[in-house]
Design goal:
The chain is an alpha+beta fold and about 350 residues long. The protein folds into three domains: about 170 residues, no CATH class; about 60 residues, SH3 type barrels, CATH 2.30.30.60; about 80 residues, 2-Layer Sandwich (Alpha-Beta Plaits). The protein has ten helices and ten strands. The protein has a five-stranded antiparallel sheet. A three-stranded antiparallel sheet has the order 8-10-9. It has a two-stranded antiparallel ribbon with strand order 1-2. Helix 9 packs antiparallel against helix 10.
């Protein structure tokens, strides 16, 4: 048994009993936090098994990374509150409290932003190119949030943040002027990110260059051309150009010219538009538009066939076009209709005194 005299013995203006009481309060607080943590975690896990949303995952992560450390610090702070501390330690404790609260708050905001990106922006396109974009965006957002948290902390600690920000502003202007092209590509990256004129896997045409998007970076976008080489575009040049995105083509209009010889009888010419309609209309993934005799050209009588392929896939378009042209050729063969080739007919007029 400890004597009452020993318990009343003072060390740095606090009795041994006060230190012992503070230690017991801290241990009791740690034990309580552990119990609460186990109960809450089990509840969240049971909830997660019954729901399809990721809200429970966010709440569990926020509780583990923000609330639990704050509870541990609360137990430590409450244990020290019963002790007589010198002003320097009181000031240090207040400083530590501000730091802990700021860090926990920033950590919560970071988890909230990550959860919102995954739940509302990435959820519908899991496995698409958005995942790579989010992976590139999250570090930037985290850095920005932690930077704002640091400014808030410095301001609460009594530092003149306005002076620091003014200095950073002047330096930022100088850096911006020196790195204008890089910053232009960076802002163009965010324009591509949020406006999404194209994503990885899209086939695009820019001026006389064409290819499939392979990578969208902070400064450049890389495209794999049809001939195999890699094309590298600056992001600012892409956002300033007219981009044709063939991956997002929902249907393709086809204008096909079909020519027959001038020797073709008029009744057969009248049959050709209906024949073309009969060939195209029954086909799957094709919508017939029109078929007309359109011109008497130098070597042939020309018809126009217009139809829509209800897909943006180029190979499917070519397969359908091939089938239609072969069907037209078979019909012409059966009806004896000739497909012309460039010819010239020379008329010779014999004069009276000629040889």
């Amino acid at each position: 048994m400890l004597s009452s005299g020993f318990l009343k013995y003072e060390i740095f203006h606090n009795t041994v009993l006060s230190y012992a009481t503070g230690l017991l309060l801290f241990l009791a607080g740690v034990a309580l936090v552990r119990v609460v943590r186990a109960i809450v975690s089990n509840r969240f896990k049971a909830w997660a098994e019954k729901t399809a949303t990721t809200l429970d995952d966010f709440l569990l992560q926020a509780f583990e990374k923000s609330a639990v450390p704050l509870f541990y610090y609360g137990a430590f702070y409450f244990a020290l509150s019963g002790l007589v501390l010198p002003p320097s330690l009181r000031k240090g404790l207040a400083l530590l409290t501000t730091v802990v609260l700021t860090v926990c708050a920033v950590q919560f905001v970071v988890e909230l932003v990550a959860s919102l990106l995954n739940e509302y922006w990435l959820k519908k396109e899991r496995g698409s190119s958005r995942e790579q974009v989010v992976k590139g965006l999250l570090p930037f957002l985290k850095t920005l949030i932690w930077g704002l948290g640091a400014v808030f902390l410095l301001d609460n600690l009594g530092y003149k943040v306005s002076t620091v920000l003014a200095g950073l502003g002047i330096g930022g202007v100088a850096v911006a002027l020196a790195a204008q092209a890089i910053l232009g590509d960076l802002f163009s990256y965010f324009a591509i990110l949020f406006d999404r004129p194209f994503v990885i896997g899209d086939f695009i045409v820019v001026d006389d260059a064409m290819g499939t998007i392979e990578h969208i970076g902070i400064k450049t976008t890389r495209v794999r051309s049809l001939s195999g080489e890699q094309l590298v575009f600056s992001n600012s040049s892409l956002t300033a150009s007219c981009i044709r995105n063939y991956k997002r083509m929902e249907q393709r209009r086809v204008l096909q010219k079909i020519s027959v010889a001038y020797a073709t009888p008029t009744p057969q010419l009248k049959e050709i538009p209906e024949m073309l309609k009969a060939i195209v209309s029954p086909r799957k993934d094709v919508r017939f538009d029109r078929a007309h005799l359109c011109a008497f050209s130098d070597f042939s009588i020309d018809f126009e066939l217009v139809y829509y392929v209800l897909s943006g896939d180029y190979n499917q378009h070519m397969d359908i076009q091939q089938e239609i042209l072969l069907a037209v050729k078979e019909y012409f063969d059966r009806r004896g209709i000739e497909i012309p080739f460039p010819t010239q007919t020379l008329f010779v007029k014999k004069t009276a005194g000629g040889a």
